[in-house]
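Researcher: Let's run the pair from yesterday's discussion. Sequence first, then tokens, for each.
Model: Starting with the first of the pair.
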Amino acid sequence: MSARRLFYLLNFGMLAAFAWAYRKDYDAEWKRYQKAYYVKTAEALERQAQSVQDPEQAEAFRAEAKSWRRRPLEIKQIIAKDFRRFDRCITCHVGMDEYANPTLSNDFAEHPYKAHPGLGTIAKSHPFTKYGCTVCHAGQGLAASVEDAHGFVHNWERPLLKGDLIQGSCVKCHANFETLKGAEVAAKGKQLFHRHGCQGCHSIRGAGGTISEPLEAVYDKPFERISLYHFTKMAKGGKPIPREEWNVQNWILGHLLNDPMLVVPNDPFAKYNAEPIAPSGMPDFREEVGEEGALALGAYLMSMTAESIPASYYVYAPPKPEPRFSDPLAHGKHVFQKYGCAGCHGLRGAQGRRNFNAMGPGQEDPEKDMDKGRVPTLVETVGTFTREELKQKISGGVSSINVNKFNPNGPTPPLYMPAWKDKIKDRELEDLATWLLSIAKKDESGF
């Protein structure tokens, strides 16, 4: 090929590329939404012009409608400098642009045209020009197409928080979220977290157990530390999670909406590792909390981030006073709840949680029945201890290597009892022992 022919060919190729880029930009998604908003607004003004009796007022409405139809299409942006965010969400959500729509209200019902709900509360205390959008809603603020902006793409770890999950954002700034209107779901999530004993295994900012990983920054978990294989084992709403929604948000929800042992099966038969590794020790809480409770827990856990919040934005709350009890039984029950004992021993100690390859009821086949392992059920076992023996067991704990295996060649059971001597002592230890002995099954043999 001659140099002249190659020169022509490259020029035509460049011209075609320019034409393609122009065409793509001309029909950009954001332009269609923004133009549609302007047309809707103009039509609403024209209807107002027809409904008024005053000719001058009608003409004013028609003139304003004409100006809306002629507005230029442009990328709109909020610079929330205190949060170091640049959000272009109002490019499509023009009804939430304080300059285009100063009242922040309209009669449009569908997205992206509708105005922001809660104008009297949320918008008033969180001006959009100061906070931006993604600090609460997440998503990819610099993007200008629906899919990219909402963040449900392979390269974005913080997709849009939908529905009640957005309440996790309230927790980041509001230490008083448990009494905050509009954060009821996240508050319920925290209540469920403590009621079901999650703090027995997980710590948050140093408070809680050490059996599993701390959660104070679980929403920051790098995506590369999550095996993509886990997502193939998850379902959400009864359906597999689409590939574009494999993200930390659904990784958290996946553990709450599915059986964690199936989500994280690990390698119990040492097929890929030198030593067998038990599946996830996290109990299956679905029956206890239900889907609604799982989403509430998810909203609470999605607040767990190391994201820096400027001190001037943070709403502090006074520390809760430690409750007082005159009854040792009531205090002992509170101690059981406070330290998350229910996480392994079940609510009120009534049913020990599943503990892979620990000793459990109905086990026969060492290969097939390892999943029947159980943490001791307290109502059945505490009665076999004297008071002093029980206190010593609580103080000294049972290390993972001392948990009796059902299959000697199988993995170490994932759940064990830490030594509580540095946390539960003195009056708490005495009253916990009193309460535990009170729930022990009574000997009904007649002797």
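Model: Moving on to the second of the pair.
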Amino acid sequence: MKKELISPLIVGVIVGALLMMFWQFNVRLNAAINAMTQLQQATAQNTQTVNDVVNFINQQVNPQASGTQTPANE
């Protein structure tokens, strides 16, 4: 090979390797973001379900405390 072709070839290989590393990092980062989004949605849905169940149990155990309290007679 000619000496003039070696330097651009080495620089091209290094730049290509860096681009592939950043592309791979971006792919993994997007996968992690998608997983976090799904986890947040599942957590929000489960939290709402648990709150509904707790509210139902509280209403069944103590119907007076369901939010419609009558004022005490003075």
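Researcher: Give me one sentence on the second I can quote.
Model: The helical segments are 3-61.
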